[in-house]
Amino acid sequence: MVGIIVTGHGRFAEGFISAIKVIAGEQNDLIPVYFEHEVDELEQDLRNAIDTLKECEGVLVFTDLQGGSPFKTAFEISLTNPNMEVISGTNLPMLAEIVMARKFGIGLKDLANMAINTGKEQIILLDKEALLADDDDDEIFEDGI
Question: What are the distances in angstroms from CA 79 to CA 84, 112, 137?
Answer without folding.
Answer: 8, 16, 51
